Amino acid sequence: MTYSDYTLSSPLADLESAAAPLLAVTIVWHPDRTRIGEQFVGGTSGDVIELNRYAPLFMHPGSKALALGHGGISRQPLRLARDADDNVTMTLPATPMVVEVNGSTVKDTVQFNAAQIAEGQILTLGRAVVLCLHWMNRLPKLNAVPGLIGVGSVIIGVREQIRMVARSGLPVLLLGETGTGKDIAARAIHALSDRKAAPLVAVNMAALDESLAALELFGAAGGAYAGAPAPRDGLFAQADQATLFLDEIGNAPAAVQPMLLRVLEGGDYRPVGAAQDRRSSARLIAATDQDLDSAAFSQALLRRLEGFVIHLPPLRERREDVGVLIVHVMGEQGADLPVTLVAELAAYDWPGNVRQLSHALKRAALMLREGVTPSFEQLVRITAPQPGNTTPPASAAGSGEAQTRRRLATLTAHEVLDAMAGNDWNIQAAAQALGVSRPSMYKLLEDHPEIRRAEIIPEEEIARAMAASKDDLGRCAALLKTPAEALRRRWRVLRPG
Question: Fewer C-beta neighbours within 10 Å, C or N terminus of the chain?
Answer without folding.
Answer: C
